[in-house]
Amino acid sequence: MSEFWHMFSFHFMQRALLVGGLISLCAALLGVSLVLKRYSMIGDGLSHVGFGALAIASALHVAPLAVAVPVVVVTAVLLLRLSQNGKIKGDAMIAIISSSALAIGVICVSVTTGMNTEVSSYMFGSVLSLSRSDAILSAILSTVVLLLFVLFYPRLFAVTFDENFSKATGTRTELYNTLLAVLTAITVVLGMRMMGALLISSLIIFPALSAMRVCRSFKRVVICAACFSLTCFVVGTIASYFLETPTGASIVAANLLCFCICCVIGKK
Amino acid sequence: MAILQCENLCFAYDGSTVLEGVNFSLKAGSYLCIVGENGSGKSTLMKGLLGLKAPDGGHITFGEGLKSTEIGYLPQQTQLQRDFPASVWEVVLSGCLNSLGRRLFYSAEDKKRAAYNMERMGIEELRDRSYQELSGGQQQRVLLARALCATKKMLLLDEPVTGLDPIATGEMYNLIKLVNLCDNITVIMVSHDIHAAARYATHILHLGQKQLFFGTAAEYRESDLARRFLGGNRL
């Protein structure tokens, strides 16, 4: 038991729990809207773009988040615009952009530093990769994401449920779709450091899907998803500390378990 | 004073005209049915009225202080909505979206209006039920209550009885007529159901990539066009 409390005395664990908790909350809230709007894959696509951006940033020796956040935000807005108006439809567009960005990232890495631990931590995540400045930036940005989500909740609900109706009654739906994309982009980049580019999208999708198995109103789904996400994050992180498993993968495993339990409960 | 006036309206997609020469005006409290075959321009005209698509020629003028954002719209249901986790209350309340203005959350007055419209549609006991669990007829009544929250003057209904059984269809038509008569709300409905259109509506607009007919339902019943459209059967 003393070992359990000892865990919290490490600075990196305190940081990981605080920042990770905030990011999990953001991902879960946004995830509900994204899953319902059939944009689940957007998180996956953006994380690959994020990987590309981080790889280039580390090759150029500049602050990784300062490069990745704007790049991914711009991609998210572009993705939304192109998938609505362009000749190539949404899912194909995401696939093209994400694999291209991943390819560029991999080429960039192999030419410069090679596959070192830093690059591998972008791929699979690591609690240790959070520096102090990263942690502060992450905490501020995720607080902003949470605040915006709560303040625009009635509008986000209306736009998610029925875009045409909202548009017809004078709501600027493009604005809220863009807001959603930008918030998602920020969350994905912040979450990537800890979860890894390959696993971050599960943080967005799983809690929403689990919550939808057991709840039938939007508000309850949102609240439930937030609770599930936070719980799974804490359980996953603590498990990874004791079992010495990768943090991101452990959190995903916890989410998978939660989803299975919800499926069983929801069937009744 | 007309509540809606369309002058020489014309719509095109990518340069090819899909609807032209639409000229009609509607008094407040009318009940207009827009009929026509698939691809006749019904949905396009609807989008134009809602301000979702700008006309490529002509004018739409609203009277009596109505704005296009104050039209209560009942869209066709999408597949997405059928498995959407939302309570009936949440859906109806979202109809008050256009009265939010700069406010972030719904006011007590908005909530009162939502409750009142639920009562009118006879769905107040479904308040906490999930929208996706309701029958087709109940779902349409929820969406009608939401549309009523968005307007005091005009309802625009896009094929509101598609997929409903005969009983639910009848109930839906009666509710719409009731709102039209009791609250003097102007109703514009796109419909395939020509028989019901001729029975409930005061005016008919028949489209076929241009305006083929506009007039009262009684005139329409006597027209050659109605006879041809119905395959020889008189209404």
Description:
The complex is a heterodimer of chains A (268) and B (235). With 268 residues, chain A is an all-alpha fold. Chain A contains 13 helices and no strands. In chain A, helix 2 (11-36) packs antiparallel against helix 10 and helix 4 (64-85) crosses helix 10 (173-195). The mean pLDDT of chain A is 86. The mean pLDDT of chain B is 87. Helices cover 35% and strands 26% of the residues of chain B. In chain B, helix 4 packs across helix 5 (136-149). The A-B interface holds A 36-38, 151-155, 157-158, 161-162, 164-171, 212, 215-221 and B 50-52, 67-71, 73, 75, 78, 80-81, 84-87, 90-91, 93-95, 97-98, 100, 104-106, 128-130, 132-133, 146, 150, 156.
- Oligomeric state of the chains in view: heterodimer
Helix segment tally of chain A: 13
Beta-strand residue fraction of chain B:
25-35%
Query: Considering DSSP H and I runs of 4 or more, what fraction of the residues of chain B is helical?
Result: 25-40%
Query: What do we call the CATH topology of the largest domain in chain B?
Result: Rossmann fold
Order of helical and strand elements of chain B = EEEHEEHHHHEHEHEEHH
Mean pLDDT of chain A: 86
Number of domains of chain A: 1
The N- to C-terminal Cα distance of chain B equals: 32 Å
Radius of gyration of chain B: 18 Å
What is the CATH superfamily label of chain A?
Answer: ABC transporter involved in vitamin B12 uptake, BtuC
